[in-house]
Structure formats: C-alpha cells, structure tokens
Amino acid sequence: MASSMINGAENLKLTCGKAPTGLVFLGSNFHGGCLPNKGIVSFGRISYVKTLAPRCNLAASRPASQPRFIQHKKEAFWFYRFLSIVYDHVINPGHWTEDMRDEALEPADLYDRKMRVVDVGGGTGFTTLGIVKHVDAKNVTILDQSPHQLAKAKLKEPLKECNIIEGDAEDLPIEYWPDPQRGIKEAYRVLKIGGIACVIGPVYPTFWLSRFFADMWMLFPKEEEYIAWFQKAGFKDVQLKRIGPKWYRGVRRHGLIMGCSVTGVKPLTGDSPLQLGPKAEDVEKPVNSFAFFLRFILGAIAATYFVIVPIYMWLKDRIVPKGMPI
C-alpha cells in the first residue's frame, strides 16, 4: 500500500509506458529552467518526528529477503485485481485515512502549484488526492503496475487532469519488493542534491498473532530497518514520523498497514555510495501455477486479518473509556 512520489528527480526511467514531458521533475521544467534545491521521493504509508534511529523494543522480524506469500509483482497484480474493487472502502478507512495521508505528506513540502509530481505506485489515487490539494493536477503523474487500481483513479474527478501511466519506474519499489534496500538506493539515485526521499509504509507488529499474519502476507519492516536503509543508501538528516488511525490511541502492537513516514535528504550529487548485486526478483521467470495459486490464497487470507484488526481497535476505542490504554 505504499505510494511513491517523485519531486526533484533527475534520472528516472520507465520499464513500461511512455513518460510525458517533465514527468520526473517537480518544481522545474523538463527542458531548461532551474531545478529546485530540494525535492521528494515519497514511497508509495502518534504523529511525532524522531531524528535518526528511534528506540524500539520490537520482536525480530523475518529477514527482508525472505519472501512472503504476496510480495512480488505477479502476485501483487492479481491480488489488486480483486482488492481494487473494495480498496477505497475497506483498506483506506481502517489503515490509511485522510488525516494520516495529510500528516504523511507534510514532510513533502509541496509549496508550489506548478511543481511536477510523479506518484509511483499511486494505485487508486488516494494519496494523489492529497497531493493535488497543493499541486495542480495537470502537473501530476500517477504510475502503477495495476490497471485495475488505475481504473479507480481515473474515475476520481480531482484527478481527471493527471497523467496516468500503467507501468513501473525502473528499479523503483512498489509495495512488493524483495529488497527494500535497493529501493531506497534507487530513490537516492533519481533525486537531485538536497532532494528528500519520503517513504510511507507499514510497521512491524509486536503481538504474536499479528506478527504471524504479517510475515505470511508482505514485508512489515521495523522502524529501525527503515532508518538503516536510508543511512546505508547515503541519506542524511533521516527522520521518522509515526502515523496511525486516531482510534488506535497510539497503539502499535498489532501493526499498521500505513504506520510511518520516513524522510532523508540527499547530500551529494550522483548515485548512492552503496553497492549492491543483481536484483533478487526475476519477473520473467516461469512460475508453477499450483504453487502460485496456493501462495495467493494463503496471502489473501493473511491480508484479511488486517481488515479485521482496525474494526477490533475501533470497537475497543468505543468501549474503553478515554484516557485509558487499549
């Protein structure tokens, strides 16, 4: 469910689809003009800011490189084929509310209506609706690998003037990425000096049952992992901002599908100093149909658990007196 926004990028390529003029620039013109001194790459979902690594007592998560049942792009394509039908009505109300979105976008510093924005992994356009509050829709591009999610975005009136592209930004992460460190490194590459990378994503649960289903479904990183990925990629001034539904009362033991917004500043021009080997995922490799179907079903069951959790937390908030922990 992470949404990625490009601001101040300088070298973005597309695997699929054709990039419109000025696609990757925010606050500047594609041909000529002055590039901004700062920009943002925000990926693609309680509220305070911590500088550098936050101290947390989270249980150890499975290694980021260990695949979950729905983590890679082929599984994600079919998962969102069905989830897109109810995404805006089921996922967003429980885990990615308008208040959370607006809080998460604050570090993006969307200060000019003429900025050029690319919302990578924009899905149904829910995050993009927050972006067009500050930036003219005609200057915003929504990019996603799911045509079914994008079909929902096209129906939203405020997004009618947005450029909508089906495809992935080359090597840029969407939600299902087997190597998050590579995605953060890629965010560094496409930014200009002084640009800001802002990753919005889930947080790892501490409750045992929630950990079990999180590890079945997709990658729920720990807060310390987000910070470490940024620092290893070369970012400076790394900060983490917690976000969550108000009725959770700050409780994070069950994990949140959208739980934190992490930002870092690119201090130098050029690529990241971090050197990595080949990508872990080969999307062209043939898959076993039975194994694929089994992984999809198990992953979908695990995802359903995180539809039930916010309902449970909402009921607790209604029952437990205000001011008492839940």
Radius of gyration: 19 Å
Q: Total number of β-strand segments?
A: 9
Counting DSSP H or I runs of 4 or more residues, the number of helices is 9
Strand count, sense and closure of the main sheet? 9 strands, mixed
Helix content: 25-40%
Strand proportion, as a percent range, falls in 5-15%
Coarse structural class: alpha/beta
Globular, elongated, flat, extended or rod-shaped: what is the shape? globular
Report the mean per-residue pLDDT as an integer. 75
Write the element-wise H/E pattern from the N-terminal end onward.
Answer: EEEHHHEHEHEHEHHEEH
Unreliable stretches:
9-59
> How is the largest sheet built, in terms of strand order?
3-8-9-7-2-1-4-5-6
What is the straight-line distance between the termini? 26 Å
Write a structural description:
With 326 residues, the chain is α/β, with parallel strands linked by helices. The protein is 32% helix and 15% strand. The chain has nine helices and nine strands. The protein has a nine-stranded mixed sheet with strand order 3-8-9-7-2-1-4-5-6, with helices on both faces. Strand 5, helix 5 and strand 6 form a beta-alpha-beta unit. The longest helix is centred in the last third of the chain and has 31 residues.
